[in-house]
Amino acid sequence: xxxxxxxxxxxxxxxxxxxxxxxxxxxxxxxxxxxxxxxxxxxxxxxxxxxxxxxxxxxxxxxxxxxxxxxxxxxxxxxxxxxxxxxxxxxxxxxxxxxxxxxxxxxxxxxxxxxxxxxxxxxxxxxxxxxxxxxxxxxxxxxxxxxxxxxxxxxxxxxxxxxxxxxxxxxxxxxxxxxxxxxxxxxxxxxxxxxxxxxxxxxxxxxxxxxxxxxxxxxxxxxxxxxxxxxxxxxxxxxxxxxxxxxxxxxxxxxxxxxxxxxxxxxxxxxxxxxxxxxxxxxxxxxxxxxxxxxxxxxxxxxxxxxxxxxxxxxxxxxxxxxxxxxxxxxxxxxxxxxxxxxxxxxxxxxxxxxxxxxxxxxxxxxxxxxxxxxxxxxxxxxxxxxxxxxxxxxxxxxxxxxxxxxxxxxxxxxxxxxxxxx
Length: 423
Description:
It is globular, with a radius of gyration of 21 Å. The two termini are 30 Å apart. The chain is mostly beta strands and 423 residues long. It folds into two domains: 2-71, Immunoglobulin-like (Sandwich); 73-419, 8 Propeller (Methanol Dehydrogenase, Chain A), CATH 2.140.10.10. Strand 29 and strand 30 (334-338) form a beta hairpin. It is built from no helices and 38 strands. The protein has a four-stranded antiparallel beta sheet, with no helix packed on it.
């Protein structure tokens, strides 16, 4: 399992001293460790998102609880949004200059689907050439798996290395790491979104007919929820540490589904939504409002907390800075950093449409591309660190970062670009 150190040393009592620390590492309500030490170590074996709880007791018997959400992954970049919550925070430091290490040419565009990265550094890249490409970290190809239709969603990688991806024509594929077919699953209609993985390794998949499928790791259907929307659903679900799933539909609803596939609640936010939700540290759900030109914040019970006005339509999925601020772009090219209370931290113009989710690295640097092919690295205050123009234009896939600090981004010129220091 992955070793996690939990630190409660910032705890204090205004009247006495802290005498007891109690730790619930995985949010199951059971105290896993207790004692007078202000740190604790746990080994988490299962890939997923967790809420840990610390209770401190002082010398007068007063208690206080605090919770923190964290993610465990056996891969470098396992799925869209990096974790089930769609934070898109990489634990690795990205490049600080626009040095191009290499590029690799596909048979067609890289549109919508970003790069997933396995623990051994293998890159899995979807393309409109109807193939999933497996590349080595040096940009050479290991294999390509061909399908009958386009790929434009980010693949997902399970803890055992299985690669899952969807095609535009109603198919979910599971491949072994060597590129051999493991199984395939047929949904009710086409797919314009990809796979998210829950803590048990189940696949959550949205079809354009508005059906949310839960598929077991062996390729059998566990359950499905039919949202009865009249128009096609785009994107991915966000999954809370408790297993509640959230997704938006083109009718402008945000829908919450219980872990067993039953309906929990919905709330109408706008007349349309093309943005996948993102769940913040405190459980607040953030989602772009499509044609309403807003970013919405909704609590876990379905109450609208606030909305933030943008200058144009919003199709991006929000991302989360390490300090809890929210990042969102719009079709007018404006990029916003919003505080958790809904007020603006900063904004800037990046020129033209922003269709991708921003990526945050371990230094809180931000990576995002626009529809002119401009790829930016910004610091957490919105200042440009570096940029590069990709000649093919139209960046509609989100970037990802390898363990060696290389950032990968695809473009409509059929190429995957790798930026980072030359080895």
